[in-house]
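Fill-in record for NnrS family protein.
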Amino acid sequence: MTTRTLSSSGWLGTPMLLGYGFRPFFLLAGLSAPALVLVWLAVLATGGWPDTAVPALSWHGHEMLFGFVMAAVAGFLLTAVPSWTGSPALKGAGLGALVALWLAGRVVVAPWSGVPPAVAAVIDLAFLPALGVALALPLVRAGKIANTAFLVLLGLLTAANLLFHLEWLGRLADGARLGLALGIGVVLMMVTVIGGRILPAFTRNALKARGVTAEVTTRRCVERLTLLSTVAMIPVDLILPGSLLAGAVALVAAVAHARRLAGWQTRHTLGQPILWILHAGYAWVPLALALKAAHGLAGLVDATAWLHALTAGGFATLILAVMSRAALGHTGRPVVATRVTVASYALLLLAATLRTLAPELPGGAYTPALHAAGLAWVASFAAFLWVYAPILTRPRADGQPG
């Protein structure tokens, strides 16, 4: 029987932070989320922005998507793929190289970096293909053909990132809009696929453990309509943004996602914050798509309302929910949210609500609501880091590797 000892830095000399994919990337997601918003609040308050930098609004959208969201996506996939395939997790130097690529991308696209745009593009574009290669090897070896769809999605995200850079290089006038639309559409597909796997499973297991007889249901026709309508939004948003067709497709998708969620017994999760936050995050998806339909079909709400409901509401809440749950489970700790963690959930829901409602408020209330949303967002992720930075950087509680 082989015994393994824990060195001061990690298992068999591997630094603890590089022992598993979720550790560095969940930490980077938790750090980048408040940092990016603090920079954006400062820009809004002062108007300060280098004349030679890429447009401020374009940079903000790019970094929230390819900085914050992609860090969380990388952490999730680098942790999920070993579970799906039974292969060893990427760790040590290989994982460190991916972390370095992500960090390099953030540095070179920063407004004060001074890095030539072409060089910045090459460096920033390298991360997602490198992540794809790291994931492809175990997926292909294990014959997990269905899960290789995530490699296609990473390829589309690389294309979305390229569209941003083509505009910044002066090669494509509408590149940032196209890149943001494609990127958000692909992330929504990831949310749709992953949410459809983990929410029913986690809920079913939790209800069974509590002896609750309510059945968690997934209907094949609803699943197909949800997937097809969500996919259909991507080309429509690229070609006919804000059109009646875009609104109609969004309405179908909103109904499909809402019907899907209705079968997952949300009301029975309210006593378990670590579970209901997943449902709360997913609930933002049909709400956001309903707002999109309301704008596209009748012009009833501001064009940005659905976007922030989906990103600050749906994407960010699900990211926080998954990170807080996975970090506990994969470090041998009880999967129970602390009071500080629950506070981080509440603050993020408040931030998303304020950011979504801000454009609909009277003129004098818009700016205070925007700043309040930003501060609630920062406080939410500060609370997450308070609880989870030690968990992500220290050994597992059960003494096992990883």
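KEY FINDING: The chain has two domains: 14-173, 212-402.
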